Amino acid sequence: MCGIAGVVSFKNSPAISVDLLKSMVNTLHHRGPDEEGLAIHGPAALGMRRLSIIDLSGGSQPIYNEDKTVWTVFNGEIYNFPELKKELVGKGHTFKTNSDTEVIVHGYEEYGLEFPKYLNGMFAIALHDTRKNRFILVRDQIGIKPLYFSFSDKRIIFGSEIKAILESKLVDKELDMNALGDFLSWEYIPGEKTLFKSIRKLEPAKFIDIDLENPGCQPREYWDVPPYNRDLQQLSETDWIEKVDCQIQKSTRMQMISDVPLGAFLSGGVDSSLIVASMGNAKTFSIGFDDPTYNELDWARKVADHLGVDHKDEIITPDVLDLFDHLMHFMDDPIGDFSIFPTYLVSRLARKHVTVSLSGDGGDELFGGYETYLANHKALQYQRIPAFVRKKIIERTINAIKPTAKKKGLINKSKRFVEGLQYDDRLSHARWRFFVGDELKRKLLTNDALSQINLPSGNHIIELFKKAGNRGPLDQCLYVDVKSYLVDNILTKVDRMSMAVSLETRVPYLDPDVVELAFQVPENLKADSSALKVLLKKVAARHVPHECVYRPKEGFSIPIKHWLNNEFKPLMDSLLSDVTIKSDGIFDPATIKRLKQEHRSGKENHSHILWALIVFHDWKQRWL
Asked: What confidence category does residue 556 fall into, taking pLDDT thresholds of 50, 70 and 90?
């Protein structure tokens, strides 16, 4: 695991200096505190910071092929590298190290641009072929590891984080208003966009192949979630339970390869518990807060005791203002997800004991674990009620009720359900992740800001539904979530917050073999009108206590709606003051003032939009 960065110059543009490359790479020190690697060959300057995991003494980067005509830096892990290495040695390639990195250069030599298809892992790769005068960027199939780039007619600049690209001083820092519109609506920035017009993300399962004599930049896809295989329809539920259980265990064991201490996050929920059960003897970590509705430590302890693992946990009372300031340094590609706090804190706890931690992320998106899928079912039933009753009685009554202090509860769920119904039904289940619709956006943004937004904020979701093809309705929703919410929110959060403490996080559910299998499981074994993760819960119940499996889903979050009125009140007053809002010319001060007043009075819960505004204004002050 590491952070990578570099600049490749085109035609007559000079290569950058080693000092500038070093400066770019040093912005990523937290991603790789163990070692620095820098090299400049002709037009290509590639560098990295290394967190040593495999082949501690021999895995230094850049890594070269036999005659040094192909060289690479990469971030991530290739879990199937022992098998690939054996295959490549059999084809005549000579290896000088025992690292997973070296299979990249020899794999490229052997398979050309098809080489990413052979890799099972999480990776962001930069590769320079000096013989063919080509430069290649590749990102893993699911998008576990990040990769950003800025392309112009003079050069391409890349990095594991945006701050490395900004450090080059070779890009314009102009706000992308369409990306801001998306950020406000979704709390993340979907697809290839970032808040900088000149910087883009390389999307999952894509690569860029640049001819340095005639440079162009058109990302191409090398993998996608396969369509449903009708030949598997004859499998019984018992067959599917066995098949999924075996594959999760196999993928988990594959991802336990490491030359340093390894553990796992354990919340006591289905996803993390099943991963820990698949590990065997493990070190596990969890945290909780003193608010009982945001504390799941008892469940984690119950699972840990049942599995007999070495478990450590903490009840956290963080200094949230100082913590906010620290964490925002890692949000140069911001998300508005509150759970950055517990993710960071559990990563910090784990890092005291291990260098690698396995995570249960991905289980919800593959096996139907989100309440948004149930909401979509309920919406279809709700539409059968006469419109007059819905609009004039039910929704008016629910909207008049104040939200409760609880994390969820019937009232809060009902209010969120009614709120989601107002959005475009083409968004399907994603309506209940949408926080700023067109009506609020018109009130929230100034006329000048609105005039710069020309793409609908739901466009990426609608396009992904089209790309999902003729899958079943639930599998379409899961496909959309894998391609959007998972990669651009969940995985971004986990990568940022774990790497902030130099902890490598691995996600066994996102092994391509698990992903491909999950999309073959019949929809009725994933979720229906009343139950979520039907099959996965039955798999988990083989290994952990029944009561831990069949309990209400809570999610990994913090009491942000309370913190905004207490611990974060000074921060919100500062970043969202009338003076600040008027000076940036993007938002309407009166609307923001109303949102703050309604939240503080308890009339409405505006925590999502207020937090997104706080994060954006902090980002703007730091980076723009």
From this structure: low
